[in-house]
Amino acid sequence: MKRILSGMQPSGKLHLGNYFGALKNWVDLQEEFECFFFIADWHALSSLYEDPRLIKNFSYEMTVDWLSAGLDPEKSTLFLQSKIPEHAELHLMFSMMVPVPWLERNPTYKEKQEEVKKVDMSTYGFLGYPVLQAADIVLYRADFVPVGIDQAPHLELSREIVRRFHNLYKKKVFIEPDAKISDIPKLNGLDGRKMSKSYDNAIFLSDTEKEVTKKVKQMLTDPARARRDDPGDPDVCNLYPFHKIYSPQSMQDEVAESCRSAKIGCGDCKNMLTETMLEGMRPIMEKRNEIVKKPKDVEEIIAEGTKKAQLVATSTLDRAKQAMKFK
To answer: Which residue from 2, 46, 280, 312 could staple onto 126, CB 3.0 to 4.6 Å apart?
Structure first.
């Protein structure tokens, strides 16, 4: 089987944007690939370095969300990045040969600095996070990294680092990872901006039915509908992308037509969405409630996955050192 590698930062609770942007796809991929999914807790330090105590709890909660959403430890290897020191060691080795301009041209570097205002992101660690990311991927000789089409260019830096290593040391050690493109639906947060923990506009996988209901009522709708009898445009409304995910086609068609003709108001639309969204989210909610009753089982899953991942990482790092004649 071809191998998949991906990870998530435990920098807060997972929301629907995370689920539809990555996690749901991971669940599908584990049926046809050998999958390694890791908790990127060292990456989380880039934004939580002032209070790293938060990372441990976020890591646990994220693992619970993964299992609740359908990741199966019998099919996928789930592990903790910081428990495998080879990530840091290969990152250090790569950092000695990666030109600084390669990192400065990364568009995410400036975007994140603009997005996160509460923390100083102008750090060495954040500038160099793509180097650690490359080490994460190539340690496991992954064939593919699942990304959305807009994220595919970010993977190119990992490929460039692999090519530079091979050119320098004249021995092929790593696999140049390819992007496994997935169709990611565009979901904004309650206020119409990108759904994000830092914007406080997210619906979380761990939210209760009461919390989800309250948040849907707060969602921004078509700004042109100032009055109940004003016709609306579902294509610019923040609710309709969620209807496309959770509501049956007949309801989607009804909502679109009734919005354009002002047969229903935004409150009616929100009530309909709440019903179908809760129906769609309920299986994850119920599974999550069962998983949190057995925290030791969650810890054991990560411990076992980390042992398995460690064997692969150690082997790859040894090969890299041999190629460099550094061992």
So the answer is: 46
